[in-house]
Amino acid sequence: MRRNLFSAIVLFGLATGLLILPACQRSQVESLKAQVQALEAEGAGLKKQIEEKTRALVLAQDEISGFPATLPASREAAAGDSHWQISLEFLLSRGLGEEEARAILGRTQISPFLLVGQKVWNYYSDGELLTGVTQGSAPISAAAMARQEARKNADELAGLEKALTASRDEITELKASLAGKEKEAAVLQARADQIPGLESAAADLRSRIQGLELTLNSVQYLAGSKASLKDAGKVRGSFLNLCGTRIADVTAGDFTSRLDLRASTVIELKAADLGLEAIRTVEIIPWRFVEGREYRVDIGAGGKTARISLLDASRFVQAQIVLMAK
Questions:
Q1: pLDDT at 98
Q2: DSSP per-residue codes, 101-139
Q3: What dihedral do alpha carbons 273, 274, 280, 285 form, nearest 10°?
Q4: What pLDDT score was predicted for residue 223?
Q5: pLDDT for position 170
Q6: N or C: where does the chain have the smaller number of CB atoms within 10 Å of the terminal CB?
Q7: pLDDT (0 to 100) of residue 51
Q8: Which DSSP symbol is given to 317?
Q9: How far apart are CA 196 and CA 192, in angstroms?
Q10: Beta carbons of 226 and 326 less than 8 angstroms apart
Q11: Residue 305 burial (CB count, 10 A)
């Protein structure tokens, strides 16, 4: 207000003075008047800049006061923790539903490695999750673990490539040695064409080997009641029953049950499965297997079950026996 009053007085004085001042002095007055107006304009501009700076400072203070709430959250990993689980719990704590949180994690890079003491950092904003793992108090960082795993995979890959190169070199040598022999070359080419399927063939071979090992370490048996076995013609009595019951019309296909002697030496029978109300005893045919020395029969649950324990398992390896229940 004082500045405006002063400016008005000066301008009034200049205006009245112009009437009596000579022409040269009147020019100087006009110059001073222009300078005063320029100073006033500059002062107004400075005042506007000060007001804008003040507003910007207030906004910056507001942003700074809210900044700590936007800092990433960290959590030190404990035993059993995973990067995925810690980040999931973080998103849930921010009010997200589990389905939405899992969807966000599905498009976020998560470290598969996490040691006790490592720190997991999470920051969430506008539907996006920023997350990472630092070493913390752990003896090694996640990045170092990843590098170790990468080196291990690289070494394995190099070994596989070396083996593949050796296989290719071998094929090349075989082709060279069989040059000029159309039949051998055709067989070699057929083998080369089968390379992509060798893994499948190897898997089948392993399965067959396992089957053979099972056969070599198993006992096959046919179980049934004495009456049902006789009716089916699988067993028959001897003359005057001097030699007991013998195996009759039994083929390899009849021995449908198998016991892997590497895993167990006990065969369990149930009376209901054999069409009996109760089992009194179980005999093993052929008679070369001696009860009490090579096997033992235990009747349980009032005859509802029977356990045949093979005491000398080596005697039953690859054997085919009939278990006749009475």
A1: 92
A2: HHHHHHTS---S---TT-EEEEEEETTEEEEEEE-TTSS
A3: -120
A4: 92
A5: 83
A6: N
A7: 80
A8: T
A9: 9
A10: yes
A11: 17
CB atoms within 10 A of CB 249: 10
For CA atoms 288, 291, 296, 302, the dihedral sign is positive
CA-based end-to-end distance of the chain:
126
Please say whether the beta carbons of 28 and 18 come within 8 A: no
Helix (H, G, I), strand (E, B) or coil at 193: helix
Q: pTM for this one?
A: 0.37
Q: How far apart are CA 205 and CA 195, in angstroms?
A: 15
Residues of the chain with pLDDT under 70: 1-26, 58, 60-72, 178-182, 184-185, 188, 237-245
Show the DSSP H helices in the chain as ranges.
Answer: 2-17, 23-66, 83-93, 98-106, 142-177, 182-193, 198-216, 226-231
